[in-house]
Amino acid sequence: MASVDQPKTVRFQFTEKKYLITLVFVTSLFMLWGIAITMGDVLNKHFQNVLNVSKAESGLVQFSIFGAYAIMGVPAGLFMKRFGYKNGVLLGLSLYALGAFLFTPAANAASFGFFRFALFILACGLATLEAVAHPFVAGLGPQSTSDQRINFAQSFNGLGAVIGPLIGGYFILNVSHGATNDLTSVKLLYQAIGVVILAIAVAFFFVKVPPVQNAHASTDADRPAGAGTGSLAQPHFRWAVAAQFFNTAAQGGTWAFFINYGVEKMALTAQDAAYYFALSMVLMMVGRFVGTFLMRYIAPSRLLALAALGNIAMCLLIAQNLGWISFVALMMLNFFFSIMFPTIFSLGLKNMGAKTEQASSFLVMAVVGGALFPPLMGRLADTDIATAYYLPIVCYAVIFLFGYRFYKVR
């Protein structure tokens, strides 16, 4: 927290002029992994159609994606600490592109296992980008506005999350509707994605990045007497890791079966359900911009707790299978969900000082929740997709506790 005598102009300074180009570029990275994550949810339904896998089995798509976060989190943090933020970004983009290109042999083999391996490599790139980009963008200005910068950058992650289902619905589900085994569209789409990501990596290689400050360094005045220096020694950080685990668990499960809900409960085509999924991502993007603005007046922790309560209410409505009321509630999950990931991340990194990179790695590893939850939720969804949405309530209850009480740096 800023000291009392700190000038207000510094307290609310969003960034500095020297960081503008870097901020724009790093912010674009948030959009790139937003596209990749929601494309995975489209692939979830596509593989059910063309590879004849069950909902529980298709949940392994999310297991492959988010499981990579658990494995790559620490190596990404160590790489970033030794070689810097810029090289961390380049590594992440390279793995992203490699995973996209691996979709070609996976499609040729028509192998669900091969696709999962390609997604795993791609997600190792996403995990690296997330581990790097959050402390990177947080460091492009003072600690007092790091929550605002991360939420602003995550707003573009929301834009990517909108683009992903639109691309997938048009190029993948449109083809698969009525098809028996069409993976050509998947192969061609991911070839194009790989080329684009490689081009962005080359462009970033030539960007001159100015020295970046550690926005989460703590001063002697900030650090309470007797506070631990290890990343796991701080109670607020341990709770942040737990909250992030359950946060991504809820995200992985609710997103994985959104299209199934639209098809089974609303009688939509898979393509139309994907477009509604994109609309729900618009609500998430709007929620992040609104949340960034509200954080000037409402403490981020309090806003996080309110958002968790909102999603508990939405899950209760979804599970009742009330037609359009429940389907609108399903879309509104993303509005309340919008600020959760970046806010938990930023609150967890507060006053971590020299342990910021390590702490970022643990918060990225916590994304493994998104790997473990979808298969479990898929088992319930195989029986009834609506009642499966009772499960995320447990996740949002943990997030509420973190935002209401356990976020405090001690």
UniProtKB/TrEMBL annotation:
Membrane topology: Multi-pass membrane protein
Sequence intervals crossing the membrane: 20-40, 60-80, 87-107, 113-140, 152-173, 188-207, 239-261, 273-291, 303-319, 325-347, 359-377, 389-407
Subcellular location: Cell inner membrane
Domain Major facilitator superfamily (MFS) profile, residue spans: 20-410
Keyword Iron: no
Main location: membrane
Listed name of the protein: L-fucose:H+ symporter permease
Protein biosynthesis is among the record's keywords: no
Keywords: Cell membrane, Membrane, Transmembrane, Transmembrane helix
Listed InterPro entries: Lfuc_symporter_FucP, MFS, MFS_dom, MFS_trans_sf, MFS_TsgA-like
Domain of life according to the entry: Bacteria
Organism: Ravibacter arvi
